[in-house]
Specification:
By secondary structure, the protein is mainly beta. Helices cover 8% and strands 26% of the residues. It contains two helices and eight strands, in the order H-E-E-E-E-E-E-E-H-E. Strands 6-4-3-7-8 form a five-stranded antiparallel beta sheet, with no helix packed on it. A hairpin with an 8-residue loop joins strand 3 and strand 4. It starts with 6 loop residues before the first helix and ends with a strand.
Amino acid sequence: MLEKLPHIIGQQLRGKGPGLDKTMYFDPAHAAVPESIQISGPALTDGQSIPARYTEDGEKISPPLTWTGVPAGARSLVLAIEDADSPTPSPIVHALVLDLPAGDGRLEEGDLPSKGSEGTPHKLGKNTFLKTCYLPPDPPPGGGAHRYVFQVYALDQPTGLNEGAGRSVLNEVLQGHTLARGCFIATYERP
């Protein structure tokens, strides 16, 4: 969608994003929650670039992810992916996965429905475009590298949310019910 935006517009939007502190992970309400969950992916590395395969410029499929360090008392997990540098007032939500099974786990490549994959059944929240699917990274040309925050939260109960719940209501549920959390940040810049 943004690949056709003129390069000069992308340059003017550079640095205009909400920033990391506006993502759910860096919300002060979660500051006391232990950061004991480790997230990784065979194709993604903290601080490195997301392979084009998982973006709007590639296959448009969700990347494989694994997580470990989930505490024994967890009853459900939440996965969230946000763009901290989107030229919008709030971060763009690329995916919300609700009530994943508690414990160490994984998502396989293409597990989330997207333009490039039918995915497998998961309870999904809405992305910024009000769809229950993975929204591949799609930064404007010339806009510089965007930071994508991959987050996992371990909760002491199921979220109680229905399919299609949004970021705001999810963030409220996380407050007071998150036992542990973890994140990594990968980047993507349109070539």
